[in-house]
Design brief:
The complex is a heterodimer.
Chain A lengths: L1 H45 L4 H5 L7 H16 L18 E8 L7 E5 L4 E5 L3 E9 L11 E9 L4
Antiparallel strand pairs in A: 1-4, 2-3, 4-5
Chain B lengths: L1 H44 L9 H12 L9 E6 L17 E9 L20 E9 L5
Helix pairs in contact in B: 1-2
Classes of the chains: A alpha+beta, B alpha+beta.
Chain lengths: 161, 141
């Protein structure tokens, strides 16, 4: 009898290890996917050049267009709807939130080092650019692992012609 | 006798416990490889030098993935733009501001069939693992 009990116990332990390993690998994959989505939306936002000021020879970014582009690319890459709620096929279960979105324009001297003490995010921009921080939660399949919440940081510079 | 009976009763469960982690791991690695390839193609395709992902780039990508054990003829590539322009024509690259969307799909190839041992539903032959992304083109004429 105790042999059977031991067997069942081993099955449970083995299965928990298996679940933990699978979960960690999936979480790692999702973290990278999120990072790429954030990078792409920062990249799209940083390309929204302000044409009127560009004509005057000042490269700068239109903040309104930049925010719209960033949201659009985040939604497309993570398959979210307009209110950031996950659509079917999305890797997320909880809506992500854009915590920081800042457009760094000509009001600063370049190279400019942006520093955000709240998220401990430091980046040096050589040209006008965009910095953003997105919060996302990993959708756990099993509860063998504690909840995982990421603050994903991304930055991009205006690409010069 | 009793032990033998217990073993026979639990044999499918033991098989599943022993081998399913390997299959799951292969699946995760394949997914990661597809995603890596999609990112690479997008990075190159959306850069200022190209603005498209043409047939030649897709053929090279198939070869790269074949080196990891994918069967190149089963890989499916979907290349689209956000404004309806063809995104695979070197003659008309997507201008800056237009998004380049790519999806690579590959069948499960019965990797999850082992889950049948414990009575889970498995995706059918038309099920696909997919990696996708959208990046804004940087190309300026």
């Amino acid at each position: 009898m105790h042999k059977l009990l031991f067997g069942v116990l081993m099955v449970v332990v083995w299965w928990m290890l298996h679940a933990l390993q699978w979960e960690e690998e999936r979480a790692m994959g999702l973290l990278y996917e999120m990072k790429r989505a954030v990078n792409r939306s920062a990249h799209a936002a940083a390309q929204q050049a302000d044409r009127d000021r560009l004509e005057l020879g000042i490269p700068s970014i239109d903040p309104g267009l930049a925010r719209a582009a960033a949201d659009l690319y985040l939604q497309a890459n993570l398959r979210l709807d307009r209110d950031f709620r996950p659509l079917p096929g999305s890797p997320l279960r909880h809506p992500p939130a854009v915590l920081v979105f800042e457009v760094i324009n000509g009001e600063h001297e370049f190279p400019y080092t942006y520093y955000n003490p709240e998220y401990n995010f430091r980046v040096t921009l050589r040209r006008p650019g965009v910095v953003m921080v997105v919060r996302a939660e990993y959708p756990r399949l099993f509860s063998v692992m504690g909840p995982v919440v990421w603050q994903i940081k991304g930055a991009a510079e205006l690409v010069h012609v | 006798m009793k032990q033998l009976l217990v073993f026979v009763l639990f044999a499918p469960l033991f098989c599943w416990l022993a081998f399913s982690p390997v299959y799951k791991h292969v699946l995760l690695v394949r997914q990661a490889l597809l995603q890596q390839e999609a990112d690479y193609l997008l990075e190159i395709g959306a850069s200022g030098a190209y603005g498209y992902i043409d047939r030649e780039m897709v053929a090279e990508s198939r070869l790269r993935l074949a080196r990891y054990g994918f069967r190149p003829e089963l890989l499916e590539y979907d290349i689209e733009s956000t404004n309806g322009m063809p995104a695979d024509q070197p003659a008309e690259p997507l201008p800056r501001g237009v998004g380049l969307r790519l999806e690579i799909r590959y069948p499960y190839e019965r990797l999850l069939d082992i889950d049948r041992l414990i009575g889970l539903d498995v995706p059918g032959p038309e099920g696909r693992i997919a990696a996708s992304g959208m990046k804004m083109s940087e190309y300026v004429p």
